[in-house]
C-alpha cells in the first residue's frame, strides 16, 4: 500500500501536550495526500502513560476531536516491552542506514522517501506543518 509513496510515521498519544498536533497532521494529510504522502500514526502509552485507551477509543478520539482521516495503527510499544518492528528499524542504524534516535516523547516524526529510505527524524517540538517537514515533501 505504501510502495513508491513518501511516509511520515508519528508516535501519537491522546493525553499529551502535543496532542493538538493531530490537527496539523490532518492538514498535512489533506494538502499532500494527492502527491502520495502517507501519514501513519502509531499510538503508544510508553511516554508518561498518555495513551491509556483501547484501539477503538483512540480511533474515536482522533475522529471526533481532530477529524483524522490518515491511518492510525493499533497501539504499540516503542521504548519498553516488546518494541514494534517498525521502531526497531527506525532507530537502528544497521537497519535504516544512519539513524539511532528514538523518540524521547510523543509525536516524534520520521520521514521516509518513496523508496522507503529514512530521510529525517523530527522531535516532538517540530510541528507537522513546519517548513522543516514541508520542504522535504
Shape category: globular
Spans with pLDDT under 50 lasting ≥5 residues? none
Compute the gyration radius: what is it?
Answer: 14 Å
- N-to-C order of helices and strands: EHEHEHHEEH
Task: Characterise this structure.
- The structure is a single chain.
- The protein is α/β, with parallel strands linked by helices.
- It has helices spanning 21-32, 55-66, 85-90, 93-96, 131-134; strands spanning 7-12, 38-43, 71-72, 109-112, 118-122.
- Strands 3-2-1-4-5 form a 5-stranded mixed β-sheet.
- The longest helix has 12 residues, at 21-32.
- The model has no long low-confidence stretch (mean pLDDT 96).
Compact summary:
This protein is of the alpha/beta class and 137 residues long. It has five helices and five strands; from the N terminus they run βαβαβααββα. The two termini are 18 Å apart.
Task: List key phrases describing it.
137 residues; alpha/beta; 5-stranded mixed beta sheet; 5 helices; 5 strands
Ordered list of secondary-structure elements with their pairings:
Blueprint: E1 7-12, H1 21-32, E2 38-43, H2 55-66, E3 71-72, H3 85-90, H4 93-96, E4 109-112, E5 118-122, H5 131-134
Parallel strand pairs: 1-2, 2-3
Antiparallel strand pairs: 1-4, 4-5
Amino acid at each position: 500500500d505504501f510502495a513508491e509513496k513518501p511516509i511520515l510515521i508519528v508516535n501519537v498519544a491522546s493525553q499529551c501536550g502535543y496532542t493538538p498536533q493531530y490537527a496539523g497532521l490532518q492538514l498535512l494529510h489533506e494538502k499532500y495526500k494527492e502527491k502520495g504522502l502517507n501519514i501513519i500514526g502509531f499510538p503508544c502509552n510508553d511516554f508518561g502513560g498518555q495513551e491509556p485507551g483501547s484501539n477503538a477509543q483512540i480511533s474515536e478520539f482522533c475522529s471526533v476531536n481532530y477529524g483524522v482521516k490518515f491511518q492510525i495503527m493499533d497501539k504499540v510499544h516503542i521504548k519498553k516491552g516488546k518494541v514494534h518492528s517498525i521502531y526497531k528499524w527506525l532507530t537502528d542504524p544497521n537497519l535504516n542506514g544512519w539513524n539511532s534516535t528514538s523518540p524521547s516523547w510523543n509525536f516524534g516524526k520520521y520521514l521516509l522517501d518513496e523508496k522507503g529510505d529514512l530521510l529525517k527524524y523530527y522531535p516532538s517540538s517540530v510541528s507537522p506543518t513546519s517548513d522543516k517537514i514541508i520542504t522535504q515533501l
